[in-house]
Amino acid sequence: MPNYTTGEIAKQAQVSIRTVQYYDRKGLLKPAAISEGGKRQYTDRELERLKLIRLLKSLGLSLNDIRSLLASPDTTNVLNSLLTEQAATLTQQKQEIEQQLRTIHQVQRSITDLRLVSSNNLIGIEKIMESQKHLRKLHATMLLLGLLMDVIEIATLVFWLMTGIWYPVLIGFGFVIIMAAWLLNHYYQQVRYVCPHCHTTFQPSWRQFSFSKHNAKMRKLTCPHCGYRGYCVEISQVS
């Protein structure tokens, strides 16, 4: 039965020596023997095991999954379950990536069709830069005032718990509610949205703005021009 050194088995399996050593440390690929000089020796059995690990790794399985598979007495069923789970994960990731690509393409089309950027229009570029700068400042202001409201809420609650006096809590929470309403209205007045379907820039109704799903860059709205229902890109209403 032929013996392989670490370098030889790595070459046969088309992996690096460091990979073989790493799998050894992780208990996935133990040598068949160790020579008197301390060199690790492998046989065809370890070579086939290394090729199998390499194949499973290429399918996206983690080393923990591979270890569980190799240690299982029911390899076939365990492998089928792991591959089914991996296929579902990859399918979900594919769908998310495809959605992100569609959104990027929609934004690119809106930028082109609305002529927000032109190679011969430096003013347009300056307006975009100004808008993005204004939007970052607006987000920073929202964050700072939000933190201030949190401090007020916590401080009044701590005061109530320590003293038993409750009316400062009522005053503090009343102030926070008023401040939050003002802050939301201020934000509403400062932003507009671009429809990815017809590229119209619009301001949604107050109700739609307040209760729609959103993230840091988009809000799920209905375009008043074409009726598109979905995520629209947020821009700043620069004065």
TrEMBL record:
GO terms for molecular function: DNA binding; DNA-binding transcription factor activity. Gene3D superfamilies: 1.10.1660.10. InterPro entries: DNA-bd_dom_put_sf, MerR-type_HTH_dom, MerR_fam. The chain crosses the membrane at residues 138-159, 165-184. The keyword Hydrolase does not apply. Residues 3-72 form the HTH merR-type domain. Residues 80-110 form a coiled coil. Keywords: Coiled coil, DNA-binding, Membrane, Transmembrane, Transmembrane helix. This is Transcriptional regulator, MerR family. It comes from Lentilactobacillus farraginis DSM 18382 = JCM 14108.
